[in-house]
Amino acid sequence: MTEQEMEKLAKGKDELLKILDDYKKTKDLLNEQKWDELQSHISKIKVEHFMEACIHNSTHPNSPRTVEENARNCLLFLENLLVEKAGYLGIDLRQL
Q1: Cα–Cα distance, 82 to 76 (Å, whole number)
Q2: 46-75: burial string, b at 16+ Cβ within 10 Å, e else
Q3: Distance of CA 93 to the CA centre of its chain
Q4: What integer pLDDT is reported at residue 89 of this predicted model?
Q5: How far apart are CA 91 and CA 68, in angstroms?
Q6: 8-49 pLDDT, tens per residue?
Q7: Is-contact 41 26, C-beta < 8 A?
Q8: Interior/surface letters 9-29, b for 16+ CB within 10 angstroms, e for the rest
Q9: Cα–Cα distance, 32 to 66 (Å, whole number)
Q10: Alpha-carbon distances of 34 from 14, 27, 40, 42, 46, rounded to whole Å
Q11: Which of 11, 55, 64, 92 has a CB 3.0–4.6 Å from the CB of 70, allowing a cystine?
């Protein structure tokens, strides 16, 4: 493996770990019912993954109406994003 490939893999793992952290924080805020903080966190995720979020939301015809529905949609988005990026990078999620 070249140095460039190793750097790409390391950066990819960092990105996957960040997505996992966002997932955990979203789930925790939802369980704790911290609605304002949860909505702020979801907005931050939308900005960080703007294009992916637009594609995800365009494929789901029913827009969330509550913060709770928005959080569940965000969790689904993060799950899909994690699987997609791991597959692209050739990383087995069980190794994280």
Answers
A1: 10
A2: beebeebbeebeeeeeeeeeebeebbebbb
A3: 14
A4: 80
A5: 31
A6: 778 888 999 999 999 999 999 999 999 999 999 999 999 999
A7: yes
A8: eeebeebbeebeebbeebbeb
A9: 16
A10: 27, 11, 10, 12, 18
A11: 64
Q: Which residue has the tokens 């692209």?
A: 88
Token pair, residue 83, equals 């699987």
Q: Which residue has the tokens 């997609």?
A: 84
Nearest to 22 by CA among 64, 69, 82: 82
The owner of tokens 């050739």 is: 90
